[in-house]
Amino acid sequence: MPVELKGSCHCGAVKFSLLSSTPVPYQLCVCSICRKVGGVGGSINLGGHSETLKVEGKENISVYKAVMDRDTPQQTIASSERSFCKKCSSMLWLPELIHPFASAIDSPELEVPETMSVCLVSSKPAYVRLPEGDKKVYKKYGPYSLEEWHKKHNLYKA
Predict the structure, then answer these.
(1) Does 96 have pLDDT greater than 90?
(2) Quick one: three-class SS letters along the chain?
(3) pTM of the predicted protein model
(4) Which residues partner with 136 through β-bridges?
(5) Pairing with 42, which of 25, 94, 108, 132 sits 20 to 30 Å away (CA)?
(6) Which residues does UniProt assign to the signal peptide (predicted)?
């Protein structure tokens, strides 16, 4: 059965809940976008069922569309949107398939994966340290989607 995730921004102006079949925070992205919007260490996204998303404080949400290949001739604006609190700037979720940021989840306490996957290290500067513990590091993305990884590790909550 899916897990109910409850989250909020730092200042409390936005609170949300949704059901998730993929609630284990196993994949850290250290790309330039995740580092700049989520903090130097990057960000971890979970998966959620968009039709179950309930939000309090919608008026405090703003959206950011990332600049891809900034300052190059290939520069474009990403089609994906990142929702954040416009009062405290906490990142909340990516709305396409609803990927809440693990950092915004208040309850339940998220399970610690045995192995952390770290993706997009090809864009990580040298000063950013990778997490301690067992990890798999990928220059781009790992071989599994969020759903596939959870199913492979018997952690999918149907």
Answers:
(1) no
(2) CCEEEEEECCCCCCEEEEEECECCCCEEECCHHHHHHHCCCCEEECECCHHHCEEECHHHEEEECCEECCCCCCCEECCCCEEEECCCCCEEEECCCCEEEHHHEEECCCCCCCCEEEECHHHCCCCCCCCCCCEEECCCCCCCCHHHHHHHCCCCCC
(3) 0.90
(4) 117
(5) 108
(6) none
